[in-house]
Amino acid sequence: MVDAGGSTVLVTGANRGIGLEACRQLKAAGFSVILTARDADEGRAAADSLGVAFSPLDVTAAEDIAALADDLRRQGRRLHGLINNAGISLEGFDGRVVRQTLAVNFFGALGVTEALLPLIGDGGAIAMVSSGMGELSAYTPALGARFSDPGLTRDQLVTLVNEFIAGVDAGTYKQAGWPGSAYRVSKAALIALTRLMARDLAPRDIHVNAVCPGWVRSRMGGSLAPRSVEKGAASVIWAMTPGQSTGGFFRDGRPANW
Fold this sequence. Notes:
The chain contains eight helices and eight strands. The radius of gyration is 17 Å and the shape is globular. An eight-stranded mixed beta sheet has the order 3-2-1-4-5-6-7-8, sandwiched between helices. The chain is an alpha/beta fold. It has a domain at about 10-90 and about 105-130 and about 190-250: 3-Layer(aba) Sandwich (Rossmann fold).
């Protein structure tokens, strides 16, 4: 990665794992880093260990998102990049799990991105940390076509995600062609969001890409995962380097299947 010359990147969910390592690698590459985390004590300790800035942020709390954006404006901070790394994977499958998972993995990323977009300079970059679990092979052709529609709008995508939630509540999600995994749906929706935001932000030359860190040895991935956290994080921060394409899904800098 080339030296970033102090350009600022904000990383969500960065008190441990891939997010923390991404902050470490970004700082080493010359970026100014803002580490955010829901747990203020853990987040501040993590930021202090790296010598980077810290801001508290629960991506599911609208007031936290608004406060972060307001604080950055008051400080006169502009962002080169945003890495939507915050994510959860819960055991079980019911309405509660579905709502919590989508609140963090999809709606959280959507809310943070929309709030911070005015602070991201033209020519900046946004990375959505997704997963190979978001591949459309898990869906019926009809649902897959709705996710991958090149004309998909934000409101249509939100409606699609809410249809899944309603289907789980009603017990009809299988008949409608949905997989029985909130995590899968959240990551597919995140890739769809990437594509439509890349399209809409093209006039500002803001590159938006979804990235897959792979199965990484972290608290979420577990000790049996084959990839190191360093390699997973490098796959993510690739999206912050200049000259990338936009609107794609990548792993280790190479196009991945969706």
